[in-house]
Design a protein that fits this description.
This protein is of the alpha/beta class. The protein has helices at residues 18-31, 57-79, 90-103, 119-126, 173-176, 185-197, 225-233, 253-258, 277-282, 289-302, 321-334, 361-385, and strands at 8-14, 36-38, 47-52, 85-89, 109-111, 131-133, 155-159, 161-162, 181-182, 202-206, 215-216, 222-223, 240-244, 267-269, 307-314, 338-343, 390-398, 404-408, 414-418, 427-435, 439-444. It binds S-adenosyl-L-homocysteine (SAH), iron/sulfur cluster and FE3-S4 cluster.
Length: 454
């Protein structure tokens, strides 16, 4: 253990997907034995890590503006004779390592998502020289991560799979995160049990392409995600299971059936990107819009109350008004509970970046606004429809106001309630009284149990 005198401050800022959030926690775990304690603010930090995202141009730009903003911290400490380590991690580091070192000469370390288990050695080096580590090592970073880590709390993430072999033509992930890799089922089950022993009640299984999971099972066969969920479902004390993010192509029957299990939450984020078959083909998604409709129908059959969210890209190269209308129609057909939607952003090195038929930004903006208006209407209608229902809510954090707690409904909505702090980390029945654009509020049900409204 580090003594007080050796305590150092570590500031980590994270962009991008849940996988990056997860990785930031693990970096903190690795650095803790070296005396680094996570600080909320960058002032007086001994080390600053920016864990970056490369998915869209805007996400990437933020790295350089933040580096510029944080630089005075480094300069000020240097005057006092203290070296503050600046590190850029994550997917921008992986994709643009050398460019970062060139453009921001004060950055000491640049390392990709597959290499941060080597952080202690990198730090030793960086106190002398600058470091770039963007290898794709043969062995997995999971083998080297400390098995003991801080409890992530009552609702926690568990990484089961990394990387992506799908190569959608717009996407950087296969290049920044590398090839698909699945952990073994045994390893995951043991970690899930340890998390539950530490107080976790809800586990979200995580992966860039989580339902492409194909890990070695304890019986010698290869397990898919459906089978893994069945095994995790057996863990006493675990109450809720979710997984993210999936691809429609990997929704096999075993996984669809797993949705009938009571601990699997009736909510699925299943990105479709477009409703036009022509655009889906140009995106290399390898599914059609009808294939997506069929999967949704099967899931609704397996689990009556399931609701969906998705990701959409508008104005992909070559998207006509008719293609866009196909997307709008798919949205009307499915009726989503919540969604993310983005304007297409050309990413260097991806096949789509060289495609003809770029859509003018004015048209892209206008289509995005139309799609978002429809998606917002659906989300609002879904939330309003919950008024009067009694939903079990896992109150995992304080709300925005005094005396308020906040948590997630089974349908992944944020729910706010006035509640005694001792109810934090509990699953409580909440009678929904208000449905807002992006959240719900309600009252804790006391006394006899009220059944959920149909
Ligand atoms: N693995 C997930 C999502 C990864 S990225 C999947 O397969 O769906 C999250 C979302 O960002 C994507 O679903 C997509 O909608 C969006 N996205 C990815 N690349 C993009 C780009 N070049 N331009 C705009 N949006 C993009
Ligand atoms: Fe990107 Fe497609 Fe892989 Fe998702 S499935 S991470 S969108 S390449
Ligand atoms: Fe972004 Fe990398 Fe995740 S590009 S979305 S942080 S995998």
């Amino acid at each position: 253990m580090a003594t007080n005198a050796e305590k150092k401050k570590l500031y980590i800022k994270t962009w991008g997907c849940q996988m990056n959030v997860y990785d930031s926690h693990r970096m903190a775990d690795i650095l803790r034995p070296l005396g680094y304690e996570v600080a909320e603010e960058p002032d007086n930090a001994d080390m600053v890590i920016l864990n970056t995202c490369h998915i869209r141009e805007k996400a990437t730009d933020k790295v350089f503006s933040d580096l510029g903003r944080l630089r005075p911290i480094k300069d000020k400490s240097a005057k006092d004779g203290k070296k503050v380590l600046f590190a850029v991690a994550g997917c921008v580091a992986q994709a643009e390592g050398d460019f970062i070192l060139e453009r921001a000469p004060y950055v000491d370390m640049v390392f990709g998502p597959q290499t941060y288990h080597a952080l202690p050695e990198m730090i030793i080096k960086a106190t002398g020289e600058r470091v770039v580590n963007t290898d794709f090592p043969v062995d997995s970073k999971f083998d080297k991560l400390p098995s003991e880590h801080d409890s992530q709390g009552v609702a926690a993430y568990l990484s089961i799979q990394e990387g992506c072999d799908k190569f959608c033509t717009f996407c950087v992930v296969p290049y920044t995160r590398g090839a698909e890799y699945s952990r073994t089922a045994q390893e995951i089950i043991e970690e899930a049990k340890a998390m539950v022993d530490n107080g976790t009640k809800e586990i979200t299984l995580l992966g860039q392409n989580v339902n492409a999971f194909h890990g070695d099972g304890p019986d010698g066969s290869t397990w898919g995600l459906g089978k893994l969920i069945e095994a995790i479902h057996e863990i006493d004390g675990l109450e809720r299971i979710r997984y993210s993010t999936s691809h429609p192509r990997d929704m096999d029957d075993e996984l669809i059936e797993a949705h009938a299990l009571p601990k699997v939450m009736p909510f699925l984020h299943l990105p479709v990107q477009s409703g036009s078959d022509k655009i889906l083909e140009a995106m290399n998604r390898k599914h059609t819009s009808d294939h997506y409709r069929e999967i949704i129908a099967k899931l609704r059959k397996a689990r009556k109350d399931i609701v969906f969210s998705s990701d959409f890209i508008v104005a992909f190269p070559g998207e006509t008004e008719a293609d866009f209308e196909d997307t709008m129609q798919l949205v009307r057909d499915i009726d989503f509970a919540s969604c993310y939607s983005f304007k297409y952003s050309a990413r260097p090195g991806t096949p789509a970046a060289n495609m003809q038929g770029l859509i003018h930004d004015k048209i892209a903006t206008e289509r995005l606004a139309r799609l978002q208006a429809l998606l917002n209407d659906q989300q609002k209608a879904f939330n309003e429809n919950c008024i009067g229902m009694t939903l079990p809510v896992l109150l995992d954090r304080k709300g925005k106001r005094d005396g308020q707690l906040q948590g997630r409904s089974p349908f992944n909505q944020s729910v706010y309630v006035q509640a005694n702090e001792r109810l934090k980390d509990q699953i409580v029945d909440v009678k929904i009284t208000h449905g807002f654009d992006k959240s719900l509020s309600g009252e804790i049900v006391t006394g006899e149990t009220v059944l959920a409204a149909e």
